[in-house]
Amino acid sequence: MEQRVRRRARVEGVVQGVGFRPFVHSLATRLGLSGHVGNDVHGVFLEVEGTTAAVERFLVSVTEQAPPLAVIERITTDELAACGSGSFEIVASEAAGTRGTLVSADSTTCADCLREMLDPHDRRFGHPFVNCTNCGPRFTIVRDIPYDRPLTTMSAFAMCARCESEYHDPADRRFHAQPVCCPDCGPRLRLHDAAGVVLPGDPLAGAVAALERGEIVAIKGLGGYHLAVDATNQDAAATLRKRKHREDKPFAVVVSGPERAEDLCVVGEDEQALLTSPRRPIVLLRARTGTALAAAVAPGNRRLGVMLPYTPLHHLLLRQLDTPIVLTSGNVADEPIAYTEQQARARLSGIVDVFLSHDRAIHMRTDDSVVRSFRGREMLLRRSRGYVPQPIPLAWDFPRHVLACGAELKNTFCVAKQHHAFVSHHIGDLENHETLASFAEGIEHFRRLFEVDPRLVAHDLHPEYLSTKYAQGLDDVELVGVQHHHAHIAACLVDNAESGPVLGVAFDGLGYGTDDTLWGGEFLLSDLVDFRRLAHLEPVAMPGATTAIRQPWRMAVAHLVSAYGQHLPAELDLLRRNEQQWPAVADLAARGVSAPPTSSAGRLFDAVAALLGVRHAINYEGQAAVELEQGTDLDERGSYPVTVPAGGEPLRVPGSDLVRAVVEDLRAGVAAPVIAARFHNGVADMIAEVCTRLRESTGVSTVALSGGVFQNMLLLERTTARLEAGDFRVLVHARVPTNDGGISLGQVAVAGARDRCDSAVLPR
Ligand SMILES: [Zn+2]
Ligand SMILES: [Zn+2]
Fold it and tell me: What residues pair up with 193 in beta bridges, in sequence order?
C-alpha cells in the first residue's frame, strides 16, 4: 500500500466569508483526502491526509484554484504523522474565529448566479438580489464584526427555509454567504416618483420605460445612488448635466457587455481584463469618434469611462434596454454620493424623475472605482468599491497602530496594524460638513471593523486642512506631521513594495511645505522616514491665492511676470481677453501682495493651458491640465529646453524657460496642439535632466513619480520613457492613486517607519 502523509496548513489573507472552507472541502474530497478545515482568528487552518502525490496536488491547487474573492497572502505548512482519519470535515470555528480577519470587498454577480437569474425554471429567476459566497455585497453592508448576518444590513430579512438550508450546507455554494436570499425572503424593488409616491406596476419595467422616454432615473446601487439616463439621448444627458450642476466633467457609461464597450471605445487586451474583473471598476478607454453616444456625455474628451453591469439589478436593466446608459454618482456638485433613502429623496428630488430603489440598506457609502491600464498594468485613479477594504500588505510590521488622515482633495484615510494598511474608500473633497461627517464616521467604522486603536496619528502639515484639524482634536495620541510631497513619494514606494532611497518627483497642484510656503514641483531624495528637498520649480506668485486656482488665466499672467518682468508681451490673446483685469493681477504678482509664491507644477500646466486659450477658468479640479493634455498633437516630437542651474541645494528649476518658449511659438503662429506637445515634452526632458544631475550628487538611480500631475498619461508616458532611456529605474503608482487619494497610505508608511527607527537614514 502506498505511503500516506499528513500535512497541516495555515492560510492567511482574505479567506473568510468568501467560500474558502467549502472550496477546500470539495477539493480535498475530489482528491480522496481526509482531514478537516476551519476558521480561526488568523484565517483558515486545515489538515489533509492521503498519498504524497494527492497531498502535493492539493497544496498546489489550493492556491491556484482558490475562490474568486479569496486573497491568499501566505500559506505555511508543516508535516504531521498520518493518523488514518477517514473523511474530510468542516469543523466549527473557534469562538473568536471571525475576529481579526479581513472583510472582503463587494464583488460583481458571478456567472453561476447570473445563470440562475436568467433561468425561468430557477427559483431565483429575475431576482435582483441574487448572490453567493463568490459574489455580492460585502463591505457596503457590514455594520460590525464578526462578519455574520446579524451584523449586516441583511439582518432585516429572515431567511426562508430553503435559503437557510443552503446557508448551512457545506457543499452548497451559498454556505455561510451572509447576504443570501431569494424572491420569497429577500429585499424588494420599488419605483417611486420625486415626491415619494410609489408607482404601480413592475418597478424594473417602469424604470426601463422612464429611461427610454429620456427621463432621469435614480438607481440604488451597491454603495449609493446613481443617476442614470440613456447615453445616446443628447437632451437627457444635457438635462442631467444642468440639474446636477456638472458643466464639463465627463460621465461614465455602463454597457451590457465587452462587445458593446468595443462599439464605443478601443479596448486593448489589458483593458478588457480590467472591464471584466470581478471588481468592475470604471475603466478609462480611448473613445471612438462618430459613435451613437450623446455629445453631452463626455464633451471634448478623448477618453471615456466605461463599466460593465456589476449588480443583478444592472444586469436586468441592461438586458431590457437596448442602449448604453450614463451611470454617475447620485449627488449634486461636490456633495458625497447619497446612500440612504432619506438623503436620496432630500437631495436628488430636484434632479430625478423616478427612483428605482429597494429596502436593503447600504451601511457604507462607496463610489465606483476608476482605473486605467498603463503599460499593461492596472493603475488606480480612484480606489473605492470593489477594492476597499482589501489591505495593502507591507513587508514590515507597524510597532503601534496608526491612523493617517490624508490631505483634503480626493481624501482617503488609512489605518494600519501588524503588516496591513487599510486605505479607506474615496471620501471626497474635505471642504464641507457633509464630507467631514462622512470622513469621521468612516474612521470609526474602520477602527471597529479592523480592531485598530491608533496610538499614532499622521496628518498633513497644512494647518487649515480639516483632516489636520481632525487629527489635532484627538486625545491621547501621538501626532506625526508628514509633509505632503514626502507622503506622495512614500505612497509610491509602498505601492511598489519598496522603501527607498529614491529620487522622488512629486508634481501636483499644491501641498504645504516645511518652510510654510506652497510646494508642488518637487524633487525629493526620499525614503520612508525622511526626505531632503534637492530641487524644485522656481516659485511663482499665485495672484489672488485660491482664486488663481479657479482662474488659470491669473496663473498665466503670474508666469508671464516671472518670465518677462515689467514688459509683458501685450499682443498675446490672453492679455487682450483680460484687458481690464490683467494689469491689476500682474501688479499683485509683481509685488507679492495677496499672491503667495508656489513651486507648483500643476499651476504651471494651468498657466500654459490659459496661454493657449484652452481654458481660462475651471469648473472642476485639474480641468485646465486635463484639457491641455486632450488637445495635444500626439505626433509632435519637438521639445522646449530648460536650463537647469549648475549648483545649489535646492536647485531652482526655471519654469519660465518653458513659458517663454510657449510665448515665442504663439507669436510665430504655431498651432496650439503643437505647442502643447512641445511643452509636455519639455517638462519630461526637464525632469530627466534634473534627475540625471541629482543622480550625480547622490548616487541614487531609482526615480519615483507621484502627485496629481502624473494623472496626465502623456506626461507620465514620456517622462518614464526618457528616464528609462537614461538608465533610471522608474516607479509609478498602481494600487493607490497618484493624486491625493494616495496620500494617506504614504502618511501611514512614514509614521510606521519613524516608529520603527527614530533617526533619519538619509545622508546629511
Ligand atoms: Zn454568485
Ligand atoms: Zn429565501
Answer: 354
Residues in Cβ contact with 578 at an 8 Å cutoff, skipping those fewer than 6 apart: 553, 557, 585, 616
**Cβ–Cβ < 8 Å for 301, 630:** yes
- Nearest ligand to the C-alpha of residue 311? 1
Nearest Cα to Cα of residue 746 among 379, 564, 474, 492: 492
Cα atoms found within 13 Å of the Cα of residue 209, Cβ hemisphere only: 9
Q: d(Cα 509, Cα 464) in Å, to the nearest integer?
A: 16
Angle at 624 between CA 618 and CA 630, to 5 degrees: 135
Name the residue type at position 190.
R
For residue 180, give the ligand nearest its CA: 2
The predicted-structure confidence for 539-591, as pLDDT tens digits, reads as follows 999 999 999 999 999 999 999 999 999 889 989 999 999 999 999 999 999 99
Tell me, what's the pLDDT at 248? 87
Q: What span, in angstroms and rounded, lies between the C-alpha atoms of 496 and 490? A: 10
Looking at the CA of 166, which ligand is closest? 2
Are 111 and 393 in contact, with CB atoms under 8 Å apart? Answer: no
CA of 435 relative to ligand 1 center, distance in Å: 33
Whose CA is closest to 514, among 494, 536, 497? 536
Could you tell me the pLDDT band of residue 322, with boundaries at 50, 70 and 90?
A: confident
Task: Calculate how far, in angstroms, residue 117's C-alpha sits from the geometric centre of ligand 2.
Answer: 14
Proportion of the chain above pLDDT 70, given as a percent: 98
CA 226 / ligand 2 centre spacing (Å): 27
What is 597-663 written as a DSSP string? EE--HHHHHHHHHHHTTS-SS-SSTTHHHHHHHHT--TT----------S--SSEEE-THHHHHHHH
> What's residue 764's pLDDT?
43
For residues 122-148, average pLDDT: 93
Q: What gap in Å lies between CA 524 and CA 694, rounded to an integer?
A: 10
Ligand whose nearest atom lies closest to the CA of 123: 2
Residue among 250, 488, 261 nearest 370 (CA): 250
